[in-house]
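tool_call predict_complex ligand=succinic acid
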Amino acid sequence: MKTIAIIATGGTIAGTGENGKTVAYHAGEIDVGQIIQSIPIINDIADIQSYQLFNVDSNEMDEKCWIILSNKINELVMDNSIDGVVVTHGTDLIEETAYFLNLTLNTSKPVVITGAMRPATATSADGPYNLYQAIALAVNDEARGKGVMVLFSNTIYSGRDVQKVNNYKIDAFDQKSFGCLGYMQDNDVYFFSNTFKKHTVHSIFAGIYQTLPQVGIAYFYGGADESILYQLAKNHQGIVIAGSGNGNYSQKWLETINELSKQGIVFVRASRVPLGIVFDDHIFDPLEHCIAANTLSAQKARILLMLALSKSYEVSQIKEFFREY
Ligand code: SIN
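tool_result ok
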């Protein structure tokens, strides 16, 4: 039987509230051991080693937590007796953690993240079944080399593209226009697509981190004041714009971006529109200071820009990273 390391970080999957109810609960309350005990069928598919790394609402997950988590997994996967890793996580920031790990883990072993939309104390809590399927995915031979995956509601998503698309329903995730990597039926795995973007062992960012450069996000809207950009530039080395349409913004923002770029701030243009792709745009960015985020959301572009800035401040080099990752 394969051995899977479960790393618990908290979230609704470890949440508790009024017995049977789904609202007014606290995320990150119960220990991972208790969750595992509630799913005896796990013992039929894997030997488990569990680690309670954090027990927080995922909105508390930040760069420091991502580094601790990534470094811990990079350490665990060096152990030949560990065949795969499952991370339990709050759903709110699962997409950011998944992309960070997808870029920084130096392993082909399966790494699967899961969570729940209903707390552990709810009637028909979804966490135990998601965790069971995440473990079943992590022991599956086909899951090797796929990059970090998110398993939710019978569906396998890629860590690069997964995003939370519903803040209420159990089936809360999607993968933009790219569908999903596959489905599961109980513990059976059905893959039918792959990501062509670099990850894990092919990622230049795979490795151990201590700190990361600061990157902020500025949301553009009709009439948005450009002073937010000056404000962010005071303590960030990079700024991602969540622009309109093709990552667009006003002339005032363009002038400010050009000015701050000359001072060394690196800008990326993502879009507040959920679907599509942001290309280089010579009309909105004639000096080509702003790097197109490709199909990454602003929050994912921020992750890549933090890692990119840890390697280079050369705009042409970072543009290449945004094409490759
Ligand atoms: C969280 O992200 O920790 C709270 C919400 C959830 O897990 O669904």
